[in-house]
Known about the structure:
The chain is an alpha/beta fold. It contains 14 helices and 12 strands. The radius of gyration is 21 Å and the shape is globular. The two termini are 13 Å apart.
Amino acid sequence: MRILIAAAGSRGDIAPYTGLGAELRRAGYDVALATTDTFAPLVREAGLEFRSLPADPRVRGGVTDRRELMRTAAAFVTELGQGFADAMNDGADLLLLSTTTAPLGWHLAEATGTPSLGVYLQPTAPTGDFPPVVTGTRSLGRLANRTTGRFALRMADRVYEQAVARLRDRVQLPALSASAMRRRQEQANWPILHGFSTALVPRPADWRPGLDVVGNWWPHHDATEPLPAGLEDFLRAGPRPVLIGFGSMASGEGERLSGIAVQALRRAGLRGILQAGRAGLAADGDDVLTIGEVPHALLFPRLAAVVHHAGAGTSAAALRAGVPAVTVPVTADQPFWAGRLAALGAATEPIPFRSLTAERLADSLDQVVKQQACARAAARAAKHLVTEDGAGQALKAVRRLSDG
């Protein structure tokens, strides 16, 4: 059986699917991952077939106006739909669709008669339990949360409208709006697996049937590969350090963020590791080391704390390691995850990205490293995450579909 996973976005939006794909491959399936060319090495290192999708221009930055952002997003998903159709030319017996690719994949599944399954990294279905992830963390009450959740879906439908029209025309399907297709899928209880932990987001009781929270899909990595020698030496040279990194966020902010990071670390009396990321963090000194990409699973258990942008993957990785966090959310769903970590007690109250100062960061680091409450909460969450098997649950769902 040939399985095609389709995902688009930044590294945190792609890496979990390498672990999911590797688990399915070990179970005997032929697995391809369609994503942007940047992540071809990640896909191939996991032993998966790579299929190319267009890149999202928003990942490279430069668009800040809300209306322009909507236009850019609409243009991108239109191009993405055409690229997804191209990726389907090599065939698939089952489609696994991310949050971004599902509104396109539904139409390709209809055109080809291919079964499909949602594999989402964020909760998108309206619920009274919390507001939409893209609107932040402040609950408006159960009725308003559900209302704003439905509104957020309608706004997403608008972004996909042009893409859907062009895609259905290409595959010779009758006209159908993005919102009409979404409602059709909801009424059919189209199955969606959510790849995050119930420690952070328990399944809302008011969700429709077919929506399940199964636990994280952890990025594939070679567990036998050691950490870089310089990093290993630094870890052994003194007390556990703090990692500071912003992943794919904060492009062009490297000098400012590096200065804040070093000042905060020294103010708090801590050793630190700066992860360069897209921002380009960098600093030198006996008490500070700069690194590139390193598997979270290998590094995080050896840290005192993690300062991060609260992406879904980094947030989960810190919890898995039982390490407390200081979150500095930048955009999108990051304030949501930052709020969830704080509510769990595994992180301090979030520091908004534009409000970050060395003083605020140092105070938060002092709280998570020198006081034990956050560390204890993170350790409790880590024990919960061990009980979950997100990839195993996805494998069971795939087997149900393939047997059916």
